[in-house]
Design goal:
The chain has helices spanning 13-24, 36-45, 62-72, 87-95, 108-146, 185-196, 204-212, 221-236; strands at residues 5-9, 29-33, 50-54, 77-82, 100-103, 158-160, 166-168, 173-176, 179-182, 202-203, 246-249, 253-256. The chain is α/β, with parallel strands linked by helices. The chain has two domains: 5-123, Rossmann fold (3-Layer(aba) Sandwich); 153-256, Winged helix-like DNA-binding domain superfamily/Winged helix DNA-binding domain (Arc Repressor Mutant, subunit A, Orthogonal Bundle). Strand 6 (158-160) and strand 7 form a beta hairpin. Helix 6 (185-196) crosses helix 7 and helix 7 packs across helix 8 (221-236). Residues 148-155 have low confidence and may be disordered.
């Protein structure tokens, strides 16, 4: 089974240790937290696919963590754990988009089944978003062919980037004055995708599909993309401020959000 990041949040050490052993045995990457406050710090720093969250904790309780997670990492799936369940709490958890609501004590098989279900659901949501994006693009192209929309100008091969930098997307070159930088074919394709989607947040797996031409699991996409983003940023940083043109959106993907100059 492939490694995915799971956050365990429980103030009881024995539960954290037990759940960690169960999940690590299935090759999941586990991050334990003993409080709601610590959990939110980890969420802000790591790409967490799933969180196992105890409801009753001193300080910030699980329901508050659930609400805050929606703001910090909306794609993270959450399985709530409780030793004192109630219908009101269960309804509130579902209203806040919790994936599951489990009563302690919980068997290892029950935990693994719920975890597998949550992660499968997460992958399915991501695949649907990519499919919708592809369908929208295909529909726009079909309308253009049929003359339903106005004819667009041919795709520009030389585009203006910030601070006087120009990019020749066909020749994969960046320059400003006497400064010039060459891009590899993959780096050039990534830059083209960013330029054609200027200002739009793009998910990790959408970028992998558009640049590399194949689909990967959600947990794989950041690992495939990270070294390529790093190399392109390094090339862009040859120009003052260029290293800031590509921004990371934690838990989601990247956006080319540099100020757009006149074309």
């Amino acid at each position: 089974m492939s490694e995915q990041n799971i956050l365990i949040v429980d103030d009881e050490k024995v539960i954290r240790v037990t759940l960690t052993k169960i999940l690590e045995a299935e090759d999941y990457k586990v991050f334990p937290a003993e409080s709601g406050e610590e959990a939110l710090e980890i969420l802000a720093e790591k790409d967490i696919a799933l969180m196992l969250l105890d409801i009753s904790m001193p300080g910030m309780d699980g329901m508050e963590v659930l609400k805050r997670t929606e703001e910090i990492s909306p794609d993270t799936k959450i399985i709530l754990l409780t030793g004192h369940g109630s219908m009101e709490t269960a309804i509130e958890a579902l209203r806040l988009n919790a994936h599951d609501y489990l009563l302690k004590p919980i068997s290892s098989q029950e935990i693994l089944s719920s975890v597998a279900s949550a992660l499968a659901n997460l992958d399915e949501q991501k695949r649907k978003r990519i499919l919708i994006s592809q369908l929208e693009t295909s529909l726009r192209q079909l309308k253009d062919v049929e003359g339903v929309t106005e004819l667009k100008k041919p795709r520009a091969q030389v585009v203006n980037l910030p601070d006087g930098v120009k990019a020749d997307l066909a020749r994969r070159e960046l320059w400003r004055g006497n400064e010039s930088v060459s891009l590899t074919p993959t780096e050039g394709k990534l830059l083209r995708v960013f330029v054609e989607n200027w200002g739009r947040v793009m998910s990790h797996d959408e970028l992998v599909f558009l640049v590399q031409g194949y689909q990967v699991a959600e947990w794989e996409a950041p690992e495939v993309l990270r070294p390529l983003i790093s190399r392109l940023r390094r090339k862009l940083s040859e120009f003052d401020g260029g290293e800031k043109w590509i921004s990371s959106i934690r838990g989601t993907g990247y956006v080319f959000d540099a100020e757009m100059p006149p074309q």
